[in-house]
Fold these 2 entries.
Entry 1:
Amino acid sequence: MLNNDLMTSKMVLKEIFEGMIKYSTLLQYVRSGKIPAKKIGRKYVFSRKALIAWRERNFNRPAFAKMI
């Protein structure tokens, strides 16, 4: 069971990106280092606090719109 700060990929897609990107795109961003995550076994886990801070820094930039 994940604690309140850790999120799965599906949770990130639903709560952080709100359906704006696909699962495969999320994985591409994680693997390229654009989105902060840790790999545990075969799965990625995300810190809610780190993702919210990342979203605030990156979603407000016009260049991010071109990434999606």
Entry 2:
Amino acid sequence: MIIIELLGPDPNEVFVATPPALEWNGLSIHGSAGLELGLIKAYSLPWNKRRTAR
């Protein structure tokens, strides 16, 4: 359905909503990544081998 609308003759508008970063129960929540990134940053867990967030 989206592809049909995009390929149609009428112009399309695209809206993007990015919630702000905030804190919930002492854990930081990244606006677009969510709670998971906040947990990875808060705890250095041994099974998090990539250690992408520090």
